[in-house]
Specification:
It comes from Streptomyces solicathayae. This is Nuclear transport factor 2 family protein. Pfam families: SnoaL_3. InterPro entries: NTF2-like_dom_sf, SnoaL-like. With 156 residues, the chain is α+β, with helices and mostly antiparallel strands. It has one domain: Nuclear Transport Factor 2, Chain: A. It contains four helices and six strands; from the N terminus they run ααββαββββα. It has a six-stranded mixed β-sheet. β3 and β4 form a beta hairpin. α1 runs antiparallel to α2. It is globular and about 55 Å long.
Length: 156
């Protein structure tokens, strides 16, 4: 495979991950993570969601996505600043997740209030017999100027 072919395949796997999240498609999200049965048996997966501790192992990671999907009525990702670096059987994708999400509706409304969030993410993929699979996802919130001002002590 050429470097360009690999880059396109990694980009497609990364896009598929976010699209599955938007649809609430847990089965596809699960299939996109390394399983140990896909030619990478010694790869322990890991995940860090903003504000969460490190999750390791397929069970913990997939439980976290099931929990997020169960408690998120609506989510949409607008990815910007996407960069892909390849190193043999590993690919690192960095991007900014511009997230629009809404929780369960209240008082008979169709959808709960929408909230915007800016998160930077690093997604590490590993080539397997079944294509590129997620090995690690690490997402961290981006502080805005207002967030920074609110977190400072008065008089500092």
């Amino acid at each position: 495979m050429t470097r360009e072919t690999d880059t396109r395949a990694v980009e497609a796997a990364n896009t598929a991950f976010y699209e599955a999240m938007e649809r609430g498609d847990f089965e596809t999200v699960s299939e996109l993570w390394l399983s140990g049965h896909d030619g990478a048996p010694h790869s322990v997966i890991s995940c860090v969601h903003p504000g969460w501790p490190v999750l390791t192992g397929r069970g913990e990671v997939l439980r976290s996505y099931a929990l997020i999907m169960a408690n998120t009525e609506y989510i949409q990702f607008f990815l910007t600043d996407v960069k892909i670096a390849l190193a043999g059987e590993v690919a690192v994708v960095t991007c900014t997740e511009n997230i629009l999400s809404g929780g369960p509706a209240e008082d008979g409304a169709e959808l709960g209030p929408l909230v915007g969030q800016l998160v930077v993410a690093t997604n590490v993929f590993r080539r397997t017999f079944d294509g590129w699979k997620l090995w690690s996802h690490h997402a961290s919130p981006v502080l805005t100027e207002n967030d920074e001002e609110e977190s400072q002590e008065p008089g500092s």
